[in-house]
Amino acid sequence: MATTELRTYDDTLDVVLTKVLLAPTDTTTVLHETALAEELGVSRTPVRQVLQELAIAGLVETRPGVGTVISSLYDTDRGMAFKVYAEIATAAANCCVGAKVDDGAKIEMVGQSLVAQNTTEHSMDLYARYAISICRSMASILPDDVLAHALTVAHWRVIRWRVADYAADPDGCWRALQENLQKVVVAMMRNNASETMRVAAGITSQLAEGAQEDYPRAVPSDAQRMG
């Protein structure tokens, strides 16, 4: 894929992924390929590629007679989403023992952490964009493209749940983002990719255990899912 095409794909991915993350969880949102292409000023090809990628992640799905829609969130699926990411991050840690952290990734993550620490006003949109950027930085330190892709896709699912959590507890989720970023930065500055992945796995496991079930999220119940 040429550099221009890659940039177009990445830019399209960021915009569409953000739309998916910010979509209401209690309504059906349809993503029209042609409309998205026109909105972004790109051909339908990168839009189609992005939607296919998001479908693999389980964030969107195709419904006959409707088209591509953003998948619903179900409380029964939350634990698995966090567990899968934690397990992949652990596998990544085992696969990159001895690997160093690229200086570019360190600089990017340190910058993200500093900005986050000094941000007094935040929003769901900003939270989602930060999470996407962090996701990309984390994947960039892995020496294997397949592993990086698996980590990224699993991370998207976790981010969607965390955005849903943000809707219920903005300040709590923002504080957690600040604290977790600092933990990751400390591991990165030790120039240890394996340790960084283990920190990420530990953070995700803690978030899964403290699933914040008391949050009044607008997530469909099992009865609604069966219906």
Structure description:
The protein has about 230 residues and is mainly α. It has 2 domains: about 5-70, Winged helix-like DNA-binding domain superfamily/Winged helix DNA-binding domain (Arc Repressor Mutant, subunit A, Orthogonal Bundle), CATH 1.10.10; about 75-210, Four Helix Bundle (Hemerythrin (Met), subunit A), CATH 1.20.120. Helix content is about 70%, strand content about 5%. It has 10 helices and 3 strands; from the N terminus they run αβααββααααααα. A hairpin with a 3-residue loop joins β2 (about 60-65) and β3. α4 (about 75-95) runs antiparallel to α7 (about 145-170).
Q: Using the 3D structure, state the CATH architecture of the largest domain.
A: Up-down Bundle
**Helix/strand/pairing category:** mainly alpha
Radius of gyration equals: 18 Å
- Largest sheet report: 3 strands, antiparallel
Number of domains: 2
Number of helices, where a helix is a run of at least 4 consecutive DSSP H or I residues: 10
Query: Helicity level, as a percent range?
Result: over 70%
The ordered string of helix (H) and strand (E) elements is: HEHHEEHHHHHHH
Percent of residues in beta strands? under 5%
> Separation of termini?
43 Å
Residue windows where pLDDT falls under 50 for at least 5 positions: 212-227
CATH class of the largest domain: Mainly Alpha
Strand order of the largest sheet: 1-3-2
> Under CATH, the topology of the largest domain is which?
Four Helix Bundle (Hemerythrin (Met), subunit A)
| Overall number of strands | 3
Q: Mean pLDDT, as a whole number?
A: 87
Query: Given the C-alpha coordinates, what overall shape results?
Result: globular
